[in-house]
Structures are given as C-alpha cells and as structure tokens.
Amino acid sequence: MTAAVTEAPPRPSRVLHRSSRAVPPRAIGGHGIWLVEEGGREVIDASGGAAVSCLGHQHPRIVAAIQRQAGQLCYAHTGFFTNAPAEDLAEELVGAEPGGLAQAYFVAGGSEAVEAAIKLARQYAIETGQPARTRFIARRQSYHGNTLGALSAGGNAARKAPYAPLLSPAFSHVSPAFAYHGQHPGEDEAAYVARLADELEAEFQRLGPGNVAAFIAEPVVGATAGCVPAPAGYFRAVRAICDRHGALLILDEVMSGMGRTGTLHAWQQEGIAPDIQAIAKGLGGGYQPIGAVLVAGRVVEAIARGSGAFQHGHTYLSHALACAAALEVQRVIREEGLLENVVAMGERLQRRLAERFGNHHHVGDIRGRGLFRAIELVEDRAGRRPFDPALTLHARIKQEAFARGLACYPGGGTLDGVRGDHVLLAPPYIVAPEEIDLIVERLGEAVDAALA
Ligand code: PMP
C-alpha cells in the first residue's frame, strides 16, 4: 500500500500551527482510510482525524454531491432564505428519529453547536418563566469545545487553566462516570451508579434545583479520557434527576454521535433521550465544516409560544454546500448499512486490542463502543496509576505511530485532566478487517517503541 517516499525540502510557513517548533508534513490526498503525504508516503487515518472522517477520504458519492451543489448554490443567508440541502438534512436527522427530537439548527462545528445548546437551554428557561435557571452542571473529565462558553462547560482542568476564569460561575462540575478509576473495589455497578446519582442530586440541592438550566454530558467521553462509556443505568438516573428538578438534559455527541458507537446516536443505547443534542464531526465526515443542534419538541414549542425567535445567529447557519455534503454522508451511511460494519469492525478492533495488549504490563484498560475504542496506559495494571510522571508517554506514542504510518489520537490527562495517558482509535466506518489488524499491529509496535 505504501508508495515510495521522497524527501521534501523544508519550507517556511505563515500558517500559525499547533506547534511553533515543527511544521507538520503536508497532506496532499487521500483514499479510503489512507492519507497521502507530499512525497508519496501513505498514512492510515486510524482516528479519522479526531473521530471526523467516518467515510474515509475522497468518497466518490460525497465528492459528486459537493460538485453538484457547488454548481447550484453554495450560500444564501438565513436572514432571507432557507435552502433544500438544509431542509432535507433536517428531515434526514430528526424526521424519522425516536426520542422526540423535532428540529435541527445547523452551525459550522462542534463548539458552535455546544454554545447554541447552552444558549437554547437558557432561552427555554426564560421563555417558560424561569429566569433564575442560569446554572449548568457538567462533569470533570469532559470536553465540550474550545470557544469560551464551551470551554467553561468542559471539565478538563489542564485545558481550561490558561484561560481562567472563563465563564466559570455558570458551570459547576461533578464526577465523571468513569468506572475504571471511579468505582471503588468491591462496589458493584448499581451501587456506583447510585453514588454518582447522589452526588448529582447533591449538586442540584447545593445550587438550588430551581436555578439549574441543564445538565450537560458526553454519553461516551471522548478526547479527555479515551472512549469511556457510562455504566448501565447511569443516564437513566441522570434523566430522572433532571426531570425531577425541571432541568434540561443536553447531550454532547459531537465526538460519539452519528454512528460512531454503532447506533446513530450514542444515547439510543442508554434507554433515554436528550432535550438538546449537539452533533458535528461525523455529521459532515470532514467533507465540509458543519455542526448541529437537535432540539426536542417541547423546547421548540416553548420558544414558538414565547418570543418566537432563537436569539442566536451565525453567518454560516444552514450553509447549503455544507448541508449538501452532510446529507450525502448520512445517506451513504444509511443506504449502505454502514452501522453494521461499525459494530462488526468495532468488535474486531476490541478483540485485536485485547490480543495485543491484554497482558501488557502497561495497558490497564481497553474500552469503548463501536469504532470508538481506546487503550489506557498505566504504570502497573494492579495499581492503575498513571505511567509517566513526565507526562510525555502519549506524545511519544503519537510520534512512534506516525513514524510507522499510523495517525492515531493519543491523549494526556486521562486520570484527572493532568495525569494519565490513553490512545484513542476511531477509524472510518468503511474500514476493512485487514485494515483493523494493520492498525493494531502498528500501534503495538509504536507502544513498545515509546516504552523502550
Ligand atoms: N464536544 C466534544 C465532545 C468534542 O469532542 C469536540 C471536539 N473534539 C467539541 C465539542 C468541539 O468541536 P469542534 O472542535 O468542532 O469545535
């Protein structure tokens, strides 16, 4: 698969890159799960970027849909017009879906979707005569985006610290549902869930239940902790507490949604439905920047009965070209039955990871759902302590993997936002069995090299 590599001479860059020390290689093309670097080297996109590229690269149906739409209409401001791709995409997303989600609001990415979700919850409170509901409860070890409001909602200490105090007064944080670290020895799952529910209830009481607009959580925690699903019954308990106190439930499925965990929405595996849901990444599959907020009927109706206008607008709302790309992505997933492949390949990935790392002294946990899987690195399996006091293990794995033609998504701060390392894998839904095996083989070599 790998083409000959030619050395590219270093070039100056005027792009402000993530690292001011090194300009990354240029990606010049892609096909399927592979990305092509300038010079010809091919790299497996084993995390779809950051769980974005769900159909892989240069999928012919999506490219054709973009070309068709680009020839017809790219953009018409929503102050004047709606457009067919936006209307059809909304129909595709909430027309036949369970759970009472009634309308979709299209923005340009995940952080914008979370901002809109937060503001919708505030507006719902106001429209229903509950202006005191200004507070939000979120969880530690969560990531909700990089804009100031979304970053304030997130609970990852290290990511927030440089920008303190953010919008902190509106957000407080309870424990994540993270059994590997949070469940006490000897405590069964039901007791663990009950303890988390008690903590959430106590937080509502501390804030005053009538002051809370919403609870926000990722159904499967992504980048901050590495594909952590909640224990059974946790989200039913959360839903019950929100309902008891008249607060909304916002689910952030920006990373875990749109089929990534094997069902279209991760919450469908929890026996509950949210009032407001943020999606992005897999919505457009990376073909266009797009995010969305899916809104339950009761929120839509409250606004319609009240002021009649959602006071939140962005320039690129319902962008026609972005919506056309996302619509085709979602149709391909549905028409080609790709969620079945997500489940089958997800099981294979879990099995292969277990074979390769199941007895590895420094791999403590192998977890996730669908094609959203992670390994957690530890000092020793019994103690579950973070591996590396210098906090560089995940970065070394990333480097070793990339040198072997594998782009994966290692993260630090797994344990508490500061300490701990994991590697997240989120390959495209079209991944083939032998590609799963190759991903695990290369990751195995990279982990061993990083630990050597
Ligand atoms: N929420 C979650 C759960 C995410 O994983 C991310 C991105 N990693 C965001 C929100 C923010 O999305 P974006 O980067 O598109 O703004």
TrEMBL record:
The keyword Transferase applies. One of its GO terms (cellular component) is cytosol. Keywords: Aminotransferase, Pyridoxal phosphate, Transferase. InterPro entries: Aminotrans_3, PyrdxlP-dep_Trfase, PyrdxlP-dep_Trfase_major, PyrdxlP-dep_Trfase_small. Residues 1-20 are annotated as: Disordered. GO terms for molecular function: pyridoxal phosphate binding; transaminase activity. Its cofactor is pyridoxal 5'-phosphate. Pfam families: Aminotran_3 (PF00202). Belongs to the class-III pyridoxal-phosphate-dependent aminotransferase family. This is Aspartate aminotransferase family protein. It comes from Roseicella frigidaeris. The lineage of its organism: Bacteria, Pseudomonadati, Pseudomonadota, Alphaproteobacteria, Acetobacterales.
